């Protein structure tokens, strides 16, 4: 809280610089390098069997909990986002389109997780834009393998609950290669 109060005393120029840095940072600041300063791809395509999501839970607007452990047997598309994040907002129509392409397919689940934990505000955002995307908030701690600080971040779990992909930064999720990759995961 003291950091926020100190920043409020900054001249107007610093507000612009600070705001620009924050907004630019929400798309893909962290995760570019590992601890050895080796460059990493922002898309992790290899499945890591030891990253199974056992104790991660999310909560919907009615207070109902959903545990990733209970979703094994389904492909899970998790998007971590916030209503104030421009790259998050920019990719939202393509996620809505992607979800629509899978219709009522029971083998894939979409979870739009508001990292701010403000379900009402996020649901109002979705309703205003007429997106058919289910909004959740974190109920448990989110491990760094899922979310290391940069948003938007999308995590796709295979049917075993292992991470099939982790994507930082905004993307166009309506592209055929993404649809085909999800279809392949569903068929496995």
How would you summarize the topology of this molecule?
Elements: H1 2-7, H2 12-28, E1 43-44, E2 57-59, E3 65-67, E4 75-81, H3 86-102, E5 108-114, H4 119-128, E6 135-138, E7 153-157, E8 163-168, H5 176-187
Question: How is this structure best described in words?
Answer:
This protein is an alpha+beta fold. The protein has a single domain, classed as Glutaredoxin, CATH 3.40.30.10. Helix content is 33%, strand content 20%. It has 5 helices and 8 strands. The protein has helices at residues 2-7, 12-28, 86-102, 119-128, 176-187; strands spanning 43-44, 57-59, 65-67, 75-81, 108-114, 135-138, 153-157, 163-168. Strands 1-8-7-4-5-6-2-3 form an 8-stranded mixed β-sheet, with helices on one face. The radius of gyration is 17 Å and the shape is globular.
Structure in a nutshell:
The chain is α+β, with helices and mostly antiparallel strands. It has one domain: Glutaredoxin (3-Layer(aba) Sandwich), CATH 3.40.30.10. It has five helices and eight strands, in the order ααββββαβαβββα.
